[in-house]
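Long-time lurker. I teach an intro course on protein structure, and each term I like to show students one example going from raw sequence to a predicted 3D structure in token notation. This year I'd like something fresh instead of my usual example. Would anyone be willing to generate the tokens for the chain below so I can use it in lecture? Attribution to the forum is fine with me.
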Amino acid sequence: MVSTSSRSNDRSSQDTATETDEAQRSYGANELGYQQLILCAALIGIAGGLVATVYYDVLEACLHMTWHTLPELITPYFPANIPAWNYVWIATTIGGFCVGLTLHCMGLPGEVAMVVDKVHDPGRIDIKQTPAMIVASLFSITAGGSAGPEAPLVQILGSFGGWLGGKLGLTLLNTRVLTFCGMSAALGAFFGAPLGGALFALEIPHRRGLEYYEALIPAVLSAILSFFVFRFNTGLTIGGMYQFAIIPQLTLMSLGHGLLLGAMGALIAVVFVGLFRLIGLLLKRLEHHTILLATLGGLAIGLLALAVPQTLFFGEKEIQTVVETGATLGLTMLLIVGFTKMLAISFTLHSGFRGGFIFPLFYLGATFGYAIALIVPDIHPTIAMVCMMAAVNVAITKTPISTTVILSVLSDTAMVPVVLIASFTSFLLTTQVSLIGTQRSRTVFPNGASFQADPQAIAVEVPVKV
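-- Reply from a regular --
Happy to contribute to a lecture. Here you go:
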């Protein structure tokens, strides 16, 4: 005899399956086989490497033109009563105006939070926003803003993956996997760490760990191929990006240092989030005045750079400067640079500049890490910098595994256990701290059903409130 509750559960399961089928049909009825999915992932990876190459070349040309060619041509003609250093704030302000004009005329492309939201639901990023993102991000980064090219590339290539899924009439499950492939291709090329880039793309949508496991292998393949194509075309080296001082042999005390640095990184991240929100409140009245807000943001970035030159740009190359000159700068100056960089990042992102904040966060970690090494001589500067780079970034992005992998490649060191401890310490201490409000568990439908790796398997999830 079947009980009433059993019949009720059966009807509920049937309703769940029906709604799930309807959701999948709204995306298309085509379900790729595994070999077909891998082929699409490979195609996205190759295309991603080519797109990343073009973007990189254009960005480098714009940066060289703005900060080398033009100053050499223009500054000799500055009036005697206007020193040549005024070029900095003039360039950043004009750049801010160009950003605002782009957003006003072409529309507002999404930011990291939007990308994370769209990955969950509807599983793809609108490719119509891509042109605005390309132009706005090039102006933003060229103007010296504290935002890097990883976010634009993620949106550009992620939207390509979703677009391909739409053209092929694929299910939500397949479409989301191809979106992840595009995101992974972008990060694999940019970071120079294919595995770390793919893991980062899969970790960042969530606050408590990677959940879209079905996308892992296709995403890694896309990242590998994109990485190869990008490095082949640009000629960039493979391996460590920074030349840190050689670390002594690790001991159990080194693990303790990792724990301490993870906690300090979490503290720095909390301070940054508080400052970021404060700047957001101060600029809230201008949020509908796109051109004015971006222009004032560019001015603020320029004035901060005049006071502390190390805060200009997004930090990828500036980290090596900290490595080489940290001891010369001294404790006080390192702390000033770190806190001023927090302001620069906040003004950059709140004023409408488009770009990512991963390398700016790495830069914060490197700066404060070297400061900690000066305060506590027992902690080696390299260990302090790399662990703090990991801890600060993880506290904000909730990506402990991928950040550890990426930094193990960028730093070209053997500190994985220590960096991993710092990453997870920061992660656990900041579970209630988030700058990306759209991070959550895998997409759920109104009745609580979600797609799993097996489209026939229906699981019930409780949505995580963010």
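Some talking points for your students: The two ends are 44 Å apart (CA to CA). Residues 34-74 form the longest helix (41 residues).
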